[in-house]
Amino acid sequence: MPSRYRAGGWTAVLGRRCALLLAVPPDSPVVAACWAQVDADPLELLAAATGGALRGAPDFAIAGQGVLLLRGAARAVVGDEEFAGAGVSTWREVPLAEGVGAVTLVAEDATGPALPLLGGIVAAGELHVDFAGTAQPHPAGRAPDEPEARQAQPIASQAAPPEQRDEAPEQPVPPVSTEPAQPDDAPAPSALGQPVSSDVVALEKPTSDPVLAQPPPAEVAVPDQRDEVPPEPTGMTEVVPGGATTTVAAVDAMVSALAQPASGATEFIPRDATQVITHLDWAATPPPPRALAPGHVLAVRCSQSHLNPPEARQCRACQGPIAEQEIEEVPRPVLGALRFSTGDLIPLDRGVVIGRAPDASATAQGVRHVLKVPGDDISRTHAEVRLDGWRVLVVDLGSRNGTSVTPQMEVTFEVGAERAVELAPWAYVALGTGGTGFTYEVTG
């Protein structure tokens, strides 16, 4: 059964592996970023939805790969249970039991009937996700298995009654005639191997000696397709370098539809199936990202001139609102600081390598801070903090006793070896088992 949605003021993003209900309009840049990650890991989709500024991030509900992630007014219904994202400063994580395929993500303003949605982007207030019913591509271009050809072949009993089949071998075999059969003497042979009409074999006294089935004469053989004249081109396809085939008419129609919005429209919010498909085409091909100078980021400012990611609606430093404005390119500011339990305070102007005897060459992230921390439970090169645009990531470098993250007012989770996890402001990171760790603090 396909997934379904009900109209509303949020935006639903549905892929093959993940689903998202987000409290932003469909034309928000955040939606395009989420669409690019909708078939990735749920944490990657979470990073796209928050944009690296969790305190100013919109409310959301994410479902995928055995987990629910909820924030703010978003809710989720799984069977008879309902989960809410309210009451936490970051997000709520709910593990899903194996085999759960149907989840309903709910906002506060869902209206109207439930409409089917195979995938894409649509303005919605509720999204019922059925991953078992979501369309999946056939691997390597293979079509689904078809019934075997023998199922369409006639069985022997359909061609002749048993009595005639038993008696036929006792008759002498007449010589094979080399003259072509006249069109009026017998029905034309079937190229598909379909049985002869039952009216022919039902005669009690055949007018001539029975003749065994012979191969079709040469006059009716299927011609070699290589000798056929290829059809005239229809103008519908065009071969481009690399072997790809582009449907020119479909592309022209899509570009024309996008370039000429409906008269009087002030914003693009899909309300019916036609608009959903058009908006999906738009979201699948977002404009190329703007090229930035090394070490630069795109930013907006709050009323106190604090720099923030372009999608932020609340300042990451002072929590003040951010008004609509032109996005500017600036050198990336210091993203905060790491306050260690040992008393060290490391500014996040670049990455940090942490360990009992850290090796700065263990990673390939350029010049970084190198911090030695004591403890037998700490590996020589234990973990690394990386900066990616506005994002602050922690990576466990294959340590013996592991690394864990505890978001503010949330449950602790382990960081997999060699896996990058984005840190929300004020999250605590524990290194090993002896109490050593640090807090990610955001400054102006």
TrEMBL record:
Family annotation (Pfam families): FHA (PF00498)
Biased composition (Low complexity): 150-162, 180-191
InterPro entries, sorted: FHA_dom, SMAD_FHA_dom_sf
UniProt KW Oxidoreductase keyword: no
Transmembrane domains' residue ranges: none
Stretches for region Disordered: 133-240
Domain FHA: 352-410
Keyword set, alphabetical order: Phosphoprotein
Keyword Thylakoid listed: no
Full protein name: FHA domain-containing protein
Organism of provenance: Actinokineospora bangkokensis
